[in-house]
Amino acid sequence: AQTVTQSQPEMSVQEAETVTLSCTYDTSESDYYLFWYKQPPSRQMILVIRQEAYKQQNATENRFSVNFQKAAKSFSLKISDSQLGDAAMYFCAYRSGTNRDDKIIFGKGTRLHILP
Amino acid sequence: NAGVTQTPKFQVLKTGQSMTLQCAQDMNHNSMYWYRQDPGMGLRLIYYSASEGTTDKGEVPNGYNVSRLNKREFSLRLESAAPSQTSVYFCASHKSGTGGTFGRGGRNFFGPGTRLTVL
Fold it and tell me: How far is Cα B88 from Cα B85, in angstroms, rounded to an integer?
């Protein structure tokens, strides 16, 4: 079975600085997708960034980028120029590319605090 | 296009009471899911439905039942609520990818969540 591990329950970063959230996963599949979701206090689940395992290039979305290390099964999220609005819970997640059920497996989350 | 909707948004139950959480999506998605979120545990899959007429257990199905009433609706029922079921419940749906905006692999959509407290 696939698992997703986030080893940092909480992190803090100064506003305008850069922070990296860690995520590792375990799978025997070669075709899969990885995600970072943001959950602000409103509880809304917001997709931040997505990586397809067969793509070697790291995904980037404005100030958000990932470091995808397929062999190491590592998928970290880098937030550049941190803003107060980035404060939230961040979840790393995995979805199989071969299973027909398309279910997502989540890590336990990292709460990110932005210090003004 | 309302996306994924959930009712109610908040609910307080007494131990032993029953209730049904409703979820609906208007995006014609095949797959739907119920998750629960607890502090320090992330989101854990309770049940899912890969297509209309099928349901399967997820990671934490005990104490719950589901019904995929039609393609739009996927309900979660607590027959005899227990304090351990105090949680935030999320419904989600999945759009399969065939290219276009969401590319290969599609995208998951989440409802706003239901906060359930069992006393």
Answer: 9
